[in-house]
Design brief:
This protein is of the alpha+beta class. It has a single domain (2-62), classed as TTHA1013/TTHA0281-like (2-Layer Sandwich), CATH 3.30.2390. It has one helix spanning 32-46, and strands spanning 2-10, 16-20, 26-29, 55-62. A hairpin with a 5-residue loop joins strand 2 (16-20) and strand 3.
């Protein structure tokens, strides 16, 4: 089984952007649930001309937070 890893970042407006690390697959959404659906649809569309195969999809949420100290 192949695995596709998506780096997910949360935008300042609250939406999400997902970028696959190994293929040219990108998508975005306003909510996490919508992002999950969009990622599945984007992967299906990317491989539309290839035989169905088992693919595991990992969503890796990257969170950047700056803390002030002192």
């Amino acid at each position: 089984m192949n695995e596709l890893v998506f780096e997910v970042t949360q935008e300042s407006d609250g939406g999400f952007v997902a970028e696959c690390l190994s293929e040219s697959i990108f998508t975005q959404a306003d909510t996490w649930e919508e992002l999950r659906r969009n990622v599945m649809e984007a992967v299906k569309g990317f491989y539309f001309d290839q035989p169905q195969k088992d693919i595991s999809i990992r969503l890796h949420l990257v969170r950047d937070e700056v803390l002030a100290h002192g």
